[in-house]
Input
Amino acid sequence: MTPPARTQAAIELLDAIIDAARAKGAPADRLIADYFRTRRYAGSKDRRAVRELVYRAIRLCGPVPARGRAAMHALSIADPDLAPLFDGSPHGPEPLVVDELPAPTGIAPKWLVERLAKSGIARDEAKALLERAPLDLRVNSLKASRDTIELPEQGSPLSTPQGLRMPTGLPVENWPAYRDGLIEVQDLGSQWACEAVAPQAGETIVDLCAGAGGKTLALAAATGNEAQIIAADTDARRLGNLRPRAQKAGAQIAETILLNPGKEAEGLSTLSGKADRVLIDAPCSGTGTWRRNPESRWRLDPAELKRLTKLQDHVLDTGAGLVRPGGRLIYVTCSLLNEEGANRFDSFLSRHEGWQAEPVPIAPGTLRGMGVRLTPYRDGTDGFFIAIARAPC
Output
């Protein structure tokens, strides 16, 4: 593909991503993969170049662009080397005209920038949300150790017990260590969230919003398979991925429970008041993960945020019913908005008499309300809010 053809391909992909964002459709990664699946003529260098253009444009444009051409126009202003590629050549974009408007740039839509600022995320903190994310690994201590594992790339030790940071873009999924369950891809912030759970051997631990089980596997490894770990979720597809992942990792999961949305308590009735620890990695807006999913900020609107906060309250109340007297509930969200973090935890404590906030036992982070916040700018992690509540005895 010629450079102009790559630019036109990026415009076409941006059109699809913009339409999907408005319709809450497929994520950008899937759309890019589907696009090239039907264009076999595009080589690996072409695919990398087009993908890079697409994500540069996404990161640059705060509000949802009108169309992909406007987004690429904005990128050509930021990077003048791109402007000559609008040359009208075969398979390339038509030339830009004098009165053609570029897409507006910025961190996010205006209402969301304001919400972030009220939550203490502005200026450098906000800009860091759109930087490229690092590639972090967790060495699976059930099978290996960070000190002795041999990998194609050495990596840099992280502040967690088994964390490694690798150069971005390495094909770790093709490594034998990944295939054999010796390593997992897991952001440093997610690893610290698991450390905050502080799981102990012999305990009953419920991962209430387990998804595909990344944190579930980390908890099993941290306890040396000596805790009873139950993974639950309402998403059958994601939860179905946990069993094969656990088998590969050598992790013993006591039970996986597929829950009926809105009736989670019924599906968990046998665990009522019995769990030593309940981890709630709550569904959220994902503002803390924009480095990995920058187009997600185009999908969020006030109505969706309101829906998510109601869901978070519901999940917190459900989790509280599982905790034994004196047990702990650990609330985690990869959002940096107060509405989904400190405010939700404060609201939980106000609804549940006798519950007490406890210090979060991790080294990084800054205090936010009754919990701790991790941010890309200050901590080199995805954005997280973590808080712990202890049930009355």
